[in-house]
Each structure stands twice: as C-alpha cells, then as structure tokens.
Specification:
The protein is mostly beta strands. The chain is built from no helices and eleven strands. Strand 9 and strand 10 form a beta hairpin.
C-alpha cells in the first residue's frame, strides 16, 4: 500500500519557522522526484518546490525562494521542507507528491498538513 504521510504543520507567528516532513512507503522512493504543493484557503493548488531523485537541482516558486529549503533523506524515505521567515500568505495545506522521472503528472499524493501563519 502506498502511503505519503506529512507532518510538521501548525500555527506559527509571522517570521517564524516550521519544518515539514513527508514519509513515504509502498514504492521505491529513490525512483521518484518529490514535490511540495500547497493550497491556500479558497484557492487552487500551487506548486511550491521540487527535488530530483538524487537530491539534485532543487527548485522553488519565486515567492518562497531564499526562505524555503527542500531536501530528502533516502535512508529514511523522507522529504523535508524547511520554511523560514514565514508570511501570512504562506498559510495553506501543504501536500507532498511523487512522480517518476519524465512524467508530467504526479503518481502519488499525501493527505496534507495545515500551516497557519498568523499573529
């Protein structure tokens, strides 16, 4: 059974930090590129960041560059999103997603973890 389980969300004040984790099972983690995608209240899905199978070439949406860092640990089958200098506009449900190399759509999604940035 495929599972992607996110954790680490919560309520944080503007300027604060959170570290999201996504533990995967049921498929070969090293064969999949991983991404974080978010959905703000009342809005559509927004891709946030992605990382290739080997951990190379992390990429970010412009609005989070310099504040968020994506990483992965193959030994733990886990992808992380370190979020610093959080802003109210980062408030959203954050999902991790997996796709094979060369594919344009995601094969697997997690259930999401909620991040609320508010004073």
């Amino acid at each position: 059974e495929v599972e992607l389980v996110e954790s680490g969300g919560g309520l944080v004040q503007p300027g604060g930090s959170l570290r999201l984790s996504c533990v995967v099972s049921g498929f070969t983690f090293n064969n999949y590129a991983m991404s974080w995608v978010r959905q703000a209240p009342g809005k559509g899905l927004e891709w946030v960041s992605g990382i290739q199978q080997g951990g190379e070439s992390p990429i970010y949406v412009h609005s989070v560059k310099g504040r968020f860092t994506i990483s992965r640990d193959s030994a733990k089958s886990t992808v992380f999103l370190q979020m610093n200098a959080l802003k109210p506009q980062d408030t959203a449900v954050y999902y991790c997603a997996a796709k094979r190399a060369g594919e344009t759509s995601y094969d697997y999604w997690g259930q999401g973890t909620r991040v609320t940035v508010s004073s």
